Amino acid sequence: MQIVVDLNRCQAYAQCAFLAPQVFELHGEEALMFTPTVPDDQHEHVRRAAAACPVQAILVGERAGP
Amino acid sequence: MTGKPWKGRIVIVGASLAGLRAAETLRDEGFTGPLTLVGEEPHLPYDRPPLSKQVLLGRTRATEIGLPRRRDVDARWKLGVRAGAIDPIEKKVILADGELLPFDRLLIATGTRARPWPDPVEARLDGVLTLRTSDDAAQLAERLDAGPRRVLVIGAGFTGSEIASACRERGLEVTVAERGPSPLVGALGGALGAFAAKLQRAHGVDLRCGVTVTSLKGRDGRLTGAEFSDGSRIEADVAVVALGAVRNTEWLAGSGLAAGPRGVACDAGCRAFNMYGIVTDDVFVAGDVARFPHPLFEYQMLALEHWGNAVAQAEVAAHNMVSTGPHRRPHLAVPAFWSSQFGLNIKSIGVPTFSDHVVIAQGSLRERRLVAVYGYRGRITAAVTVNRAKWLEHYQYLIETAAPFPPESGAADRPDSAASVPSDVPDPQLLSHGPTVALTGHLPDRRLTLVRHEPTPTAAHRR
Predict the structure, then answer these.
(1) CA distance to B175, B331, B342, B389, B395, per residue, from B345 (Å)
(2) Hey, where are the domains in chain B?
(3) Domain spanning B116-242: which superfamily?
(4) Is residue B328 exposed (0-12), middle (13-18) or buried (19+ Cβ within 10 Å)?
(5) Which class does domain B10-49+65-113+246-327 fall in?
(6) Do domains B10-49+65-113+246-327 and B116-242 have the same CATH topology?
């Protein structure tokens, strides 16, 4: 599972950081850092985080490529 | 797509963010024909913003920054192969490996590469690096892991500043050399440039502005240090050349397209112009390599090195590639970007360099939490937030509606927010770092040329 966050859209509501703290972390008050390749045991947490994001900035999918 | 689905062959040159999102949009639009994606790098598409952040901090490996797909694109992928030329008559892309790819519609999304250090001998010294690709980031992260005694960052644009931030966070000594008066000044103007300079120094960066690196010193092929134009020298094990980007247009030299160091010129619908200024109907452009006219900025040709622009422009280009005249859409997205450095979240909407004045409308430089609003001739053209991202949407609306500048005071604004000051956007000739937004049009009241000609930037840097 691969993720990318549209950080133009992100407004640091931090719902993702509560729901999947191993994948999303606020660096300082507002700067979001995420782990693009999601560890296997975090898939469910990440799906919940993506669903909960108030600005729907998190894209979850298979890795793009051939 | 509306009406009958367009039939034909599509080739996309460039398999990074813009190329990928264009391919997905083509399929979303109902295009079912043969689709080929060509990428120079051998890697699957990946996300570049983490390269100067998570990867340098050692939180994410450079191989683990792949992009998620929105859908299957059912395409033929030619990765690790450069496109060498276009035959505009026969409508073929000629690849470096000799293969010919015939197309009915072509998308150019070849992006940019890092501007190299101008002295090729010094550039080859072990320890001299650039940062643009995942391979670059992997190398730099490895160097930082090894605990260099000092890192030299040449150029204090966003990339250079983020590298310096990562170094300090890892406890590494870092010197930043910038020919201009302050970091980020080329993108954000004088007031926030001065803020960025204070921020860097408060975090222990040895920031040297108004100087150039005159030479990189080495012994036995390894970097040992650098000399500055003011006569001073430092010792350093690693030097990162962050002088901005070069647009990948050389391969289009014989194509007859309006392609050059400023990018590939296209209309608001992403159709490329040829060298006579006539719009083509089968060649489209998107992403960092494109220059396009934007109505919010007096139809100046903008070239944006922004993640969001690559996505939005790719979507418009793809839609237009398979749509007929009246169904085509303009690319009108308001430019936006973000940067995180020294623990702060810096975000921008609009074009801050398209301004004559700036006002700190909310917060203050001292609090390190603020909204700076930029105006040009009495209307709002941009806003930059530091740790106040939630306000950007509001200012986007003001930019889109050409609201008057200075903005009216709201409840969240400083009571004394009326005091605007000149935005002090410098001529980029004076900077080490290349601008990430290039205004290449003409402003009548200023002699403003915000894109430098080859090979001036590197030569200027060494003067």
Answers:
(1) 22, 27, 9, 8, 17
(2) 10-49+65-113+246-327, 116-242, 336-433
(3) FAD/NAD(P)-binding domain (3.50.50.60)
(4) middle
(5) alpha beta
(6) yes
Residue B357 corresponds to which amino acid? H
Of A8, A64, A66, the CB nearest to B336: A8
Which of A2, A3, A29 is facing B387, going by the closest CB pair?
Answer: A29
Q: What is the pLDDT along chain B (463 residues), one digit of tens a residue?
A: 456 778 999 999 999 999 999 999 999 999 999 999 999 999 999 999 999 999 999 999 999 999 999 999 999 999 999 999 999 999 999 999 999 999 999 999 999 999 999 999 999 999 999 999 999 999 999 999 999 999 999 999 999 999 999 999 999 999 999 999 999 999 999 999 999 999 999 999 999 999 999 999 999 999 999 999 999 999 999 999 999 999 999 999 989 999 999 999 999 999 999 989 899 999 999 999 999 999 899 888 999 999 999 999 999 999 999 998 889 999 999 999 999 999 999 999 999 999 999 999 999 999 999 999 999 999 999 999 999 999 999 999 999 999 999 998 776 676 555 588 888 888 766 777 766 666 655 443 443 333 333 444 443 343 3
Strands B263-265 and B290-294: parallel
* B441 phi and psi angles, rounded to 5 deg: -90, -160
Residue B15: closest CA among chain A residues belongs to which residue? A65
Give the C-alpha separation, B452 to B463, whole Å: 15
* Inter-chain residue contact B340 with A12, CB threshold 8 Å: no
ipTM: 0.97
Confirm whether A31 is domain-assigned. Answer: yes
Q: Which of A4, A29, A32 sits opposite B67 (nearest CB)?
A: A4
| DSSP, residue by residue, B153-220 | EE--SHHHHHHHHHHHHTT--EEEEESSSSTTHHHHHHHHHHHHHHHHHHTT-EEEES--EEEEEEET
Selected for mutation to probe chain A from B28, B38, B340, B369 (highest A CB count within 10 Å) is B340
Query: Can you tell me the distance from the alpha carbon of B278 to that of A22, in angstroms, rounded to the nearest whole number?
Result: 53
> Quick one: B336-433 is in which CATH superfamily?
FAD/NAD-linked reductase, C-terminal dimerisation domain (3.30.390.30)
Q: Which tokens sit at A40?
A: 């296997």
Domain count of chain A?
A: 1
Q: What would the two tokens of residue B240 be?
A: 């990162």
CATH for A50: 3.30.70.20
In a domain, A66, yes or no: no
Distance CA B112, CA B454 (A): 14
Beta carbons of A65 and B77 less than 8 angstroms apart? yes
User: What is the nearest CA distance from A33 to chain B, expressed in angstroms?
Assistant: 7
| Residue A43 lies in domain | 2-61
